[in-house]
Design goal:
The chain is mainly beta. 4% of the residues lie in helices and 59% in strands. A hairpin with a 2-residue loop joins strand 19 and strand 20.
């Protein structure tokens, strides 16, 4: 019988590796030794580009705990509702998870949604999903966790690549990339265009002559350059532009979201490691609301310009083997305003003009230390945030200029502290035990503070007095890894958002954003990767007991979500994958008055080489044509993606 000492014995610590050669990577500083102490799932490039829909949200849906606000994807939803969260800590349309692209936060400065259509999977090398509150860089946005997207480099992309797809409804998808290596660096130019007439989201029994298909037309383009400046310093520059138009439910109910982002990142990979990042974002959103009874425009949200500014500085000093210390500061400032016109349903003339907006800012100071001693790794981090909510206003005027409402809201500022810590114990035979605890912070968005909205027949009021959300949580898990053969991970967690922001029902036709006492979520997450010969199985399961007001489940929060992908690769370049996905029942609102039934879908992906670097690709979404209810507002229903078949070619991917 093995002794306890033998069981806990870890392989002898290898000698310190020689200094890394200075090479251009196009990525940030490497992960710290304690990263596995937290519940983290990494999707590699192959998993991202085989998503049956070709969308990033489809690829991420295979991760235990990942959740969008609604079940519809970024082709058939209002962009302002594209919030993402983890661990069933949802309930409103704002993202409670921090999503970064090469270290830059991607959330819209005004609404907090993620521009999913601009995040093309074929441009990425990996997506790392870490659940639980974050206290490192930009930790004030990582209330439920972090989704870190990493761009592919020139070697992974090849000199030139592209793809062209068409669906059985006539929708199309076109992408192209040019990635030459230049001296000791590289440049990448990429573009993608998706368009289609979409499908009728309204069920047959509720359609009217004004019902319209979920038409979409979106494009994004990116320019990225990486160069070695000399010594151990690397420069990374990136420009991203996107534009996305959609029509939802009725003719004339059109939305547009667009943005232009720019960032510069300097990486020092010498004895003192460091990273400096600066970015700017210019975003806008417009939307026409159409009456669900008279089918004419009732609101023209004609402009919502917003700006995001920020950056970070991180330092890692040289320390004895087994120790990694990172410390630094980050800053994010979000400012924006809206201009909208209320329209008469009878005459179409303007009845009221409204404007609102403000500025949120956050300065964070962070430090984190990892210590590896044999089989045991310990980590602890501390973050202090100086936040400010300022310049808030709301105004309404009559068409003749008469002031109906004019409000200026008091500025607020304060300090908030967040901590996290964890432990990882490596046992013999591929076993690992881990545990972690953390707190977190999220500021209310400008949208939550100042913008009311209507989804007929319900009006939701803004609330300029909203306070910050706070997270307290802990987790424990066990992993078993046999490299190249089997990986199993199970995590139990208990997370609680205090002063959670939710849309609280006051009357059947009126809601208001309020801080509620808490959203509590506890549950189990599991993932499995198994490989044998040409076959591979990737599966995930999330079981969550989440409670909010009066012991009811938060809106849009399922108790069960599961996914399994079986892949067959008989030869290089040949691939067949089937994905079975189940989402349990959830409720439309905080009163559990409207139930969204569970949905199980089967999707497929197949690739077959035709010539050197050229492949035929077939994709199928929702093969069983399952009815997916994404919205039920007082009996008015929206449906998700029906059976959709795609065929196309890929070159160089």
């Amino acid at each position: 019988m093995l002794s306890l000492a033998a069981l806990l014995a870890a392989p002898e610590e290898p000698p310190p590796p020689p200094p890394e050669p200075i090479i251009v990577t196009g990525r940030g500083l490497r992960e710290t030794p304690a990263t596995p102490a937290y519940a983290t799932t990494v999707l590699e490039r192959e998993a991202l580009i085989r998503a049956p829909s070709g969308r990033i949200e489809d690829a991420l849906a295979g991760v235990a705990g990942f959740q969008q606000f609604r079940r519809s994807d970024s082709r058939a939803s209002n962009p302002s509702a594209q919030g993402v969260t983890l661990r069933a800590l949802g309930g409103n349309a704002t993202s409670r998870a921090l999503v970064t692209l090469d270290g830059v936060p991607m959330a819209d400065p005004f609404f907090g949604y993620i521009p999913l259509s601009a995040l093309a999977p074929e441009r990425l090398a990996s997506a790392s999903v870490t659940r639980g509150g974050g206290s490192g860089p930009f930790g004030a946005g990582a209330l439920a966790g972090t989704i870190a997207l990493v761009s592919a480099d020139a070697e992974e992309l090849g000199l030139a690549s592209g793809a062209l797809f068409a669906s059985d409804r006539g929708d199309s998808e076109l992408s192209a990339t040019l990635a030459p290596q230049l001296g000791q660096g590289f440049a990448i130019v990429s573009a993608r265009w998706d368009r289609g007439e979409g499908f009728l989201t309204t069920p047959p029994e509720q359609r009217v002559p004004a019902s319209a298909k979920a038409r979409y037309d979106s494009w994004s383009a990116r320019l990225r350059g990486v160069a070695r400046l000399g010594g151990a310093t690397e420069l990374q520059a990136q420009l991203l532009a996107f534009r996305d138009t959609r029509t939802l439910r009725f003719r004339g109910a059109d939305s547009l979201s667009e943005g232009q982002d720019a960032s510069l990142r300097l990486i020092g990979r010498g004895r003192w490691q460091w990273e400096a990042l600066a970015y700017v974002q210019a975003r806008d959103f417009t939307n026409i609301v159409v009456s669900a009874t008279r089918f004419v425009p009732t609101l023209d949200q004609r402009a919502t310009p917003s700006t995001g500014l920020g950056g970070k500085l991180e330092l890692r000093p040289p320390l004895p083997p087994g120790h990694v210390l990172r410390f630094g500061a980050d800053y994010r400032r979000s400012s924006g305003s809206l201009a909208e016109d209320a329209l008469s349903a009878a005459t179409g003339v303007v009845t009221e003009r409204r404007s609102a907006g403000g500025t949120n800012s956050d300065l964070g100071l962070f430090a984190e230390h990892d210590w590896r001693a044999g089989a045991l790794t310990l980590t602890g981090g501390l973050r202090a945030d100086r936040f400010a909510i300022s310049d808030g206003f709301f105004a309404a005027t009559a068409p003749d200029g008469e002031v109906l409402t004019s409000a200026r809201f008091p500025d607020r500022a304060g300090w908030a502290a967040s901590v996290r810590g964890g432990a990882l114990l490596r046992l013999a035979g591929g076993w690992r035990l881990r545990a972690a605890g953390y707190t977190g912070l999220r500021l209310p968005t400008l949208n939550e503070l100042y913008r009311p909205f209507v989804v007929f027949p319900v009006t939701t009021r803004a609330n300029a007095a909203l306070g910050n959300e706070r997270l307290v949580g802990f987790e424990a898990g066990v992993d078993f890894v046999l490299p190249g053969r089997l990986s199993v991970s199970v995590t139990g967690f208990d997370n609680r958002i205090e002063d959670a922001i939710a849309n609280v029902t006051l009357t059947p036709t009126l809601r208001e954003r309020r801080n509620i006492d808490r959203i509590a979520a506890r549950g189990l997450e599991a993932s499995l990767t198994a490989m044998r010969g040409p076959f591979a199985l990737d599966a995930s399961l999330a079981l969550t007991d989440a409670l909010a007001l009066e012991g009811k489940r938060p809106a849009q929060t399922p108790a069960l979500a599961a996914s399994a992908t079986l892949t067959w690769q008989p030869a290089p370049g040949h691939q067949l994958a089937l994905t079975l996905r189940h989402t349990g029942a959830q409720f439309e609102d905080d009163l559990e008055s409207e139930r969204l039934p569970p949905a199980t879908t089967l999707s497929a992906f197949a690739a077959w080489p035709l010539a050197v670097r050229l492949s035929l690709v077939l994709r199928a979404e929702n093969l069983t044509d399952t009815r997916i209810v994404t919205r039920n507002q007082a009996g008015s229903i929206d449906l998700g993606t029906p059976r959709t078949l795609w065929a196309g070619v890929r070159w160089g991917l």
